[in-house]
Protein backbone atom coordinates (compact mmCIF):
# COMPACT_ATOMS: atom_id res chain seq x y z
CA UNK A 1 0.00 0.00 0.00
CA UNK A 2 0.89 3.63 0.13
CA UNK A 3 3.62 4.58 2.54
CA UNK A 4 5.78 7.54 3.37
CA UNK A 5 9.39 7.53 4.51
CA UNK A 6 9.88 10.00 7.32
CA UNK A 7 13.13 11.80 8.08
CA UNK A 8 14.22 9.99 11.24
CA UNK A 9 17.12 12.42 11.52
CA UNK A 10 14.73 15.28 12.21
CA UNK A 11 13.79 15.44 15.93
CA UNK A 12 10.40 16.99 15.11
CA UNK A 13 9.65 14.17 12.66
CA UNK A 14 10.57 11.58 15.31
CA UNK A 15 8.20 13.29 17.76
CA UNK A 16 5.44 13.36 15.13
CA UNK A 17 5.82 9.66 14.32
CA UNK A 18 5.69 8.77 17.99
CA UNK A 19 2.60 10.94 18.53
CA UNK A 20 0.82 9.09 15.71
CA UNK A 21 1.82 5.70 17.14
CA UNK A 22 0.85 6.71 20.67
CA UNK A 23 -2.57 7.87 19.49
CA UNK A 24 -3.25 4.85 17.28
CA UNK A 25 -1.56 2.02 19.19
CA UNK A 26 -0.24 2.81 22.66
CA UNK A 27 -3.53 4.17 23.96
CA UNK A 28 -5.05 0.77 23.09
CA UNK A 29 -2.44 -1.16 25.07
CA UNK A 30 0.06 -1.95 22.33
CA UNK A 31 3.49 -1.37 23.80
CA UNK A 32 5.79 -3.45 21.60
CA UNK A 33 6.65 -2.61 17.99
CA UNK A 34 8.00 -4.44 14.98
CA UNK A 35 9.63 -1.57 13.11
CA UNK A 36 9.82 -2.08 9.37
CA UNK A 37 11.36 -0.02 6.57
CA UNK A 38 14.15 1.18 8.81
CA UNK A 39 16.78 1.16 6.07
CA UNK A 40 14.81 3.06 4.66
CA UNK A 41 13.65 1.25 1.54
CA UNK A 42 13.01 3.52 -1.43
CA UNK A 43 11.37 2.58 -4.71
CA UNK A 44 14.16 4.41 -6.56
CA UNK A 45 17.69 4.34 -5.17
CA UNK A 46 18.91 7.76 -6.19
CA UNK A 47 20.91 8.59 -3.08
CA UNK A 48 22.68 11.52 -4.70
CA UNK A 49 19.32 13.33 -4.69
CA UNK A 50 18.04 12.37 -1.23
CA UNK A 51 18.51 14.83 1.60
CA UNK A 52 17.91 14.43 5.30
CA UNK A 53 17.78 16.84 8.20
CA UNK A 54 21.43 16.03 8.98
CA UNK A 55 22.68 16.26 5.40
CA UNK A 56 22.98 14.45 2.06
CA UNK A 57 21.96 10.79 2.04
CA UNK A 58 25.34 9.69 0.70
CA UNK A 59 26.98 11.03 3.85
CA UNK A 60 24.46 10.35 6.62
CA UNK A 61 22.18 7.44 5.60
CA UNK A 62 23.86 4.88 7.85
CA UNK A 63 22.58 6.61 10.98
CA UNK A 64 18.94 6.36 9.81
CA UNK A 65 18.14 3.00 11.54
CA UNK A 66 19.64 4.22 14.81
CA UNK A 67 17.53 7.38 14.91
CA UNK A 68 14.45 5.51 13.72
CA UNK A 69 14.69 3.27 16.80
CA UNK A 70 15.43 6.29 18.99
CA UNK A 71 12.04 7.76 18.07
CA UNK A 72 10.28 4.78 19.60
CA UNK A 73 12.66 4.43 22.54
CA UNK A 74 12.18 8.06 23.55
CA UNK A 75 8.43 7.80 23.06
CA UNK A 76 8.09 4.62 25.08
CA UNK A 77 10.21 6.06 27.88
CA UNK A 78 8.02 9.18 27.89
CA UNK A 79 4.96 7.00 28.62
CA UNK A 80 6.67 5.50 31.65
CA UNK A 81 7.37 2.17 30.04
CA UNK A 82 10.37 0.64 31.82
CA UNK A 83 11.14 -2.71 30.21
CA UNK A 84 10.69 -3.16 26.50
CA UNK A 85 12.43 -4.15 23.32
CA UNK A 86 11.37 -3.48 19.74
CA UNK A 87 12.13 -5.56 16.69
CA UNK A 88 13.70 -3.61 13.85
CA UNK A 89 14.38 -4.76 10.30
CA UNK A 90 17.63 -2.84 9.99
CA UNK A 91 19.91 -1.97 12.88
CA UNK A 92 23.11 0.03 13.20
CA UNK A 93 25.91 0.22 15.71
CA UNK A 94 24.38 1.42 18.96
CA UNK A 95 20.80 0.36 18.17
CA UNK A 96 20.78 -1.85 21.27
CA UNK A 97 21.06 1.36 23.31
CA UNK A 98 17.54 2.15 22.13
CA UNK A 99 16.09 -1.27 23.03
CA UNK A 100 16.14 -2.45 19.43
CA UNK A 101 16.82 -5.96 18.29
CA UNK A 102 17.57 -6.63 14.64
CA UNK A 103 15.48 -9.34 13.01
CA UNK A 104 15.78 -11.57 10.00
CA UNK A 105 14.43 -9.70 7.03
CA UNK A 106 11.54 -10.60 4.80
CA UNK A 107 9.72 -12.93 7.14
CA UNK A 108 5.96 -13.41 6.94
CA UNK A 109 3.69 -11.00 8.81
CA UNK A 110 2.19 -13.69 11.01
CA UNK A 111 2.00 -14.27 14.74
CA UNK A 112 4.05 -17.44 14.29
CA UNK A 113 6.87 -15.54 12.59
CA UNK A 114 6.59 -12.84 15.25
CA UNK A 115 6.91 -15.46 18.01
CA UNK A 116 9.96 -16.97 16.31
CA UNK A 117 11.65 -13.57 15.99
CA UNK A 118 11.10 -12.69 19.64
CA UNK A 119 12.45 -16.06 20.78
CA UNK A 120 15.59 -15.89 18.61
TrEMBL record:
One of its GO terms (biological process) is carbohydrate metabolic process. Residues 2-118 form the Glycoside hydrolase family 31 TIM barrel domain. Gene3D superfamilies: Glycosidases. Keywords: Glycosidase, Hydrolase. Coiled coil: none annotated. GO terms for molecular function: hydrolase activity, hydrolyzing O-glycosyl compounds. Belongs to the glycosyl hydrolase 31 family. This is Glyco_hydro_31. It comes from uncultured Cellulosilyticum sp.
Amino acid sequence: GDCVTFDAMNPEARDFIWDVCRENYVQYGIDFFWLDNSEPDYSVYDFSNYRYYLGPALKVSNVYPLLYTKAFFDGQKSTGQADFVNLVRSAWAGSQKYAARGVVRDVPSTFGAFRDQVAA
